[in-house]
Amino acid sequence: MSEKKFNVAVAGATGAVGNQMITCLEERKFPVKSIRFLASSRSFGQKLDYMGDSVAVEELTESSFKGVDIALFSAGGGTSERFAPFAAKDGCVVIDNSSAWRMDPEVPLVVPEVNPHAVAQYTGKGIIANPNCSTIQMVVPLYPLHKKCGIKRIVVSTYQAVSGTGKKAIDELNYQTRAILNFKDCENKVYPHTIAFNCLPHIDVFLENGYTKEEMKMVFETRKILEDDTIGVTATTVRVPVFLGHSESINIETIEHISADQVRSLLEKAPGVKVVDDPENNIYPLAIDAAGQDLTLVGRIREDESIANGINMWVAADNIRKGAATNAVQIAEILAKEYL
Ligand code: NAP
Ligand code: 3JN
User: Fold this and answer.
1) Which atom of ligand 2 is nearest to the CA of 214?
2) Cβ count within 10 A of residue 219
3) Tell me: the pLDDT tens digits for 284-315?
4) Closest to 262 (Cα-Cα) out of 171, 149, 157, 186
5) Three-state secondary structure call for residue 49
6) What are phi and psi of 21, to 5 degrees?
7) What is the three-class DSSP state of 24?
8) d(CA 95, CA 171)
9) Is residue 2's pLDDT more than 80?
10) Do 176 and 196 meet the contact criterion of CB atoms below 8 Å apart?
11) Residue among 20, 99, 107 to mutate when testing ligand 2 (max atoms within 8 A of CB)
């Protein structure tokens, strides 16, 4: 029997995430019958490659989704809020990368290694949300630990690459690094301060409680994906002068005791995780090793000696692949295989 194929659209196809979504669809041999690339009017007519064919970018409009089965959105929250309902009305299932729909109770928020069953709830609004990149790479290794010994509290600090802000931020780090090394003045256009040779404890906007929106996304999304509102989560999110690959320092307090060795052997079997933990030989997760592949690297696993049941770890993942595009295409694979 021949495999079922789908009409697919990528909204935001010209962006950093959209480009990677196209590559992931190709690499993972997603069963595509037809493909449409959508972006703003600025990109109208631009050509993008798909499986060796040149495909013209179309302007995203309310009627772009007629005849489309699955649309992968990465064109910003405002665009998703406006256009996803039109896609759903036309019978297309939207997999959205923005924060617009993540906390909607009728929209599932899915990390395939953690809660693939939640995809079934796509029927509510015809939308499935892809979590924030920093949340994804945290819950992939924490889920098996939560199942085994119950996580009471998570304290996380992130070290996020500029590619999380899109193409313009990649260009800004490149330009500022060259300018500073050549003793020239440099302008800050994307971030409020120079990102080259610096760290900015500021991702997304500040909220009334003193946290940033990125930090609160990690709190709320983690609880929704792990389906446990009792977990305490506190985050500090930091932009660092790295092009690709987010890193995180994660501390957890568990209900039942677990040793560092037990954590290591649990994570060695966990889907989507690669344990990289041989400090004596200077081997631990690095952003540059995480970049360009889909596993979440976990290392520096050690017991937190300041409390009875605590574990520390260092985690790195490709923020554009597993943090965005790969996770979205994995969701599309579940949808295509089990529900459409
Ligand atoms: P980017 O490189 O700046 O690309 C933005 C894309 O959106 C471009 O294709 C752009 O088209 C398109 N776009 C912007 N406004 C539009 C409009 N009004 N109508 C149609 N298309 C429009 O940004 P990115 O890094 O790819 O991120 C895109 C979005 O993905 C973010 O805003 C965010 O919501 C989401 N994201 C999620 C994660 C995650 O953690 N899961 C990570 C990064 C990004 P033009 O080229 O024509 O302007
Ligand atoms: O900054 C990062 O490293 C990740 C950025 C994600 C992002 C960027 C712009 C808008 C998001 C997101 O996915 O949460 C959004 C959004 O709120 O949609």
Assistant:
1) 14
2) 17
3) 999 999 999 999 999 999 999 999 999 999 99
4) 149
5) strand
6) -60, -40
7) helix
8) 28
9) no
10) yes
11) 99
Task: For 10-49, write each residue's pLDDT tens digit.
Answer: 999 999 999 999 999 999 999 999 999 999 999 998 999 9
Under 8 Å between Cβ of 339 and 312: no
Q: How far apart are CA 335 and CA 340, in angstroms?
A: 6
Active-site residue list: 133, 246
Which residue, 193, 194, 212, 210, is CA-closest to 202? Answer: 212
For residue 222, what are its two tokens? 């983690």
- C-alpha 320 – ligand 1 centre gap (Å): 12
- Write down the residue that tokens 């299932």 correspond to: 93
**What is the model's pTM?**
0.97
217 lines ligand 2 (CB under 6 A): yes
Q: Which ligand is nearest to the CA of 9?
A: 1
Q: From ligand 1's centre to the CA of 20, what distance in Å?
A: 12
**Quick check: CB of 87 below 6 Å from ligand 1?**
no
Radius of gyration of the chain (CA): 20
Decide whether any atom of ligand 1 lies within 6 Å of the 39 Cβ: yes
How remote is the C-alpha of 276 from its chain's centroid? 21
The CA–CA distances, whole Å, from 40 to 79, 197, 331 equal 10, 33, 25
Q: Which of 285, 199, 217, 211 is nearest to 248 (CA)?
A: 285
Angle at Cα 320 formed by Cα 112 and Cα 88, nearest 5°?
60
State if residue 74 touches ligand 2 by the CB under 6 angstroms criterion: no
Kindly report the number of other CB atoms within 10 A of residue 208's CB atom.
Answer: 5
Q: How far is the CA of 98 from the centre of ligand 2 (A)?
A: 7
- Decide whether any atom of ligand 2 lies within 6 Å of the 15 Cβ: no
State if residue 82 touches ligand 1 by the CB under 6 angstroms criterion: no
